Amino acid sequence: MLICFAISSSTIILVLHWILSAKWTRAIRETKKSTPYECGVDPVGTARTRFHVRFFMVAILFLLFDVEAVFLYLWGPLAFRLKWIGLLEMAAFLIVVILSLMYAWGKGALEQE
Fold it and tell me: Crossing angle of helices 79-107/53-75, nearest 10°?
């Protein structure tokens, strides 16, 4: 009984949504609401502008170093429980992070023009 009610009510909701959305989307498409909107100003140019690769490199490096900062943040409360082995592992991790930062800096990945 409960399964029949669940199936019938979900079917009714889906059919109503399908019918009403088809009716309302036609009305919305005909209005001015379908035009692009950027803070009340008409858009200038296309949305297909190209960005320089350096922008993406800085974004990717930011994400990588941000995730590594989260690892450091989570390691802090466990530092005393992990003893020396945890300290050595985190030191190795920090050495890898610092070396990768130095490599990215040396290659000019952090430079903005």
Answer: 160
